[in-house]
Amino acid sequence: MILIKEPKLDRLKRAALPALCVVLVAMAVTSSAAAQKVRIAMPAKSMTFLNFYVGEKFGIYKAEGFDVSLEVIKPDVGVAGMVAGEIDYTSAIGTAMRAAATGVPTKAAMFTMDRVLVYLYSKPSIKSIEELKGGKTVASTGLVATPTFAAKAMARAHGLNPDRDLTFVFTGDAGNSLTSLLSGATDAAMLSMPFNIKAEESGFRNLGNAVDYLQTPFAGLGATDAKLKNNPAQVKRMIRATLKTVEYTKDPANQERIVGLLVDEFKIDRKAAAGALRDIIRAFSKDGTTTEEAIKIEIRDIREQAKIKNEVPVSQVVDYRLLEEVLAEMKR
Fold first, then answer.
1. Residue 25 lies inside a defined structural domain of this protein
2. Which residue, 5, 137, 138, 268, has most beta carbons within 10 Å?
3. Do 102 and 222 reside in the same domain of the chain?
4. CB 128: neighbour CB atoms within 10 A?
């Protein structure tokens, strides 16, 4: 029998292999344990919040140490959940600002969209916004919801008095608004993506896109005052990751994989997905902010709808402090 001696180095490698496996497993467990569970309230599974899905799908939040859970929750319930400490953030930024204006301790920490990406669809027999005059019914998500403000802005731009000429039917979410239009319960509906695509496919008429009429906060990150004060490090990481999700979504190099995500998540064809992506990119904020003018208009509308008599300063509804720190750090 001939014995073949192992080289000493190979023997050492083999001896070290079990220990190496233990180390690698321990590293994986530690990495997994380090991922912080964060709950983000989404008012609907809508393309308005595409960048959040991109961040989850392509590991952008994970790279910042987050295990994100994107949860569809009615906007006001999401804000209540934040105040109760059960939800970390809300993407329904308009609702967070409206709550802040009425004294709820919440703030907008950043904006992902500062254009209103919502469409006005009507029965085929209605050919223009002007033809809604006379009390035609328009489905929207709520009395003080952003789609309602958008519908009113679109109506005013076409010479209508929305409070007199339109009759709003409040449905709670965009899916219900689509159902009301499809069933004939309303003459028109304000629809976010992908519900506008379903209306288009069903033969309803697109009367316009609010992005052409209104600049106002539409999506972003809202948090409680307590979160902003007591956990600024986490908020900054969340802001940084969310800014990166927007940039990743806008990057032409990523278009094919983003279109693929839209097809998979929202069950639409690639042509519709590509068109939707173009509209979404138009609505993105350039750096997480919006103009002070847009915020003041939002506050004016909130005060009008909620019948708030006191002045509401911008600082009561928006806190850019941590966003500004993140932007400065990202430029270094």
1. no
2. 138
3. yes
4. 12
Q: Which residues contact 21 (CB under 8 A, 6 or more apart)?
A: none
Q: How far apart are CA 294 and CA 301, in angstroms?
A: 11
Residue 27 lies in a domain: no
Q: What is the pLDDT of residues 55-68, one digit of tens each?
A: 999 999 999 999 99
Same domain, yes or no: 244 and 103:
yes
Handedness of CA 81, 83, 86, 88 (dihedral sign): positive
pTM: 0.80
pLDDT, tens only, 245-255: 999 999 999 99
- Give the whole-angstrom CA distance, residue 204 versus residue 139: 14
Count other Cβ atoms within 10 Å, centred on residue 133: 16
Angle at 289 between CA 58 and CA 68, to 5 degrees: 30
73-113 confidence digits (pLDDT tens):
999 999 999 999 999 999 999 999 999 999 999 999 999 99
Helix, strand or coil for residue 115? strand
Adjacency order of strands within the sheet including 106-115 = 66-72, 36-42, 89-90, 215-224, 106-115
Other beta carbons within 10 angstroms of residue 178's beta carbon come to 24
